[in-house]
Amino acid sequence: MEKNILNNSIDRSWIEKLDNPLVISGPCSAESEKQIKETAIRMDTSYVKVFRAGIWKPRTKPNNFEGIGKVGLQWLKNVKKNTGLMVATEVANAEHVKLALSFDIDILWIGARSTASPFTVQEIADSLKGKEDKIILVKNPIHPDLELWIGALERLFSKGVKKLGVIHRGFYTYKTSKYRNQPNWNILLNFRSILPRIPIICDPSHICGNKKGILEISKIAFHFFRCDGLMIESHCDPDHAWSDAQQQITPEKLLEMLKKLIYSNNYNDEKSQNQLDSLRILIDEIDENIITLLAERMKISKKLGILKKKYNIALLQKNRWEYILNKSIKLGKELGVSEEIIEEIFKIFHKESINIQKY
Q1: Total domains, the chain
Q2: 349 is in which domain, residue-wise?
Q3: Among 28, 234, 266, 281, fewest CB within 10 Å belongs to which?
Q4: H or E element, residue 184
Q5: Domain identity same for 11 and 55
Q6: What Å distances lie between residue 18 and 86, 90, 135, 148, CA to CA?
Q7: Which of the 8 DSSP states describes residue 89?
């Protein structure tokens, strides 16, 4: 499918009629009717327009809480009736779609694990044929595969679904990071350059994996990358939540954050300044990655030192050092990095590694 067809034919009416940013909030998981009702009642509907709750929870391992199931859909329907909020939940197969639609759930989203499976997305898309009035959001796949993310949208669009949007929830990383899921803001910029009309909702709860970073990520998403909305997990008693307790906040804390976010005057709306700040955030993210990887490299160097002492091996291995340096210089040239920079950086790495291995 040509990208411009998807881009030009998308229906943005559902988000353009709502306040900016669109805020979707509610608990990670529906646990009880009381919990859903209390959380919803405590929402400030002048800021929050959509109430979310996980009904089915795809878990990494079996025997964990996998969602309350069908009964929770009635609780969401009651929230919609009693508060006037739109309601949303995640679907992972055709049966989920069928049940959610039968309870008049307004917004369905496809989770990161599901987005990673074209077969699953196709099943969901097929089940939505003839349901063009529903809003469908697609979370980014677990790994930073832009084409897979866009492909999910194309599968839905080919079945007549035009009220589409995406959720940026960050990407899995193998390295240690301060984030649960790496934001990888550059992927978001690339997505927008290809499909600028697709609404983007940022999910700082899943990016951070904790409460303390939510406001910072929300500011970056809203002010610098001009996301159309936010999905933030909230719970009436987050410390006792059945899933992801560490990243959920109370509705009152949510309101406090949103006021700081929307009324903050610390951000320059000039286009040039916004572009500069966005690029600086990309650099900051790369710098954090470099430092984290450097720390991992030093840990391995320390282990090497222990082994060298154990087996009476000389700390300086000239052939190994020359191999690393030459290989790195060659790779740097291929990627457009000067030989001088590579040599200087790796000399510092090598010197520090030797110092670590001495002790």
Answers
A1: 2
A2: 271-358
A3: 266
A4: none
A5: yes
A6: 11, 21, 13, 29
A7: E
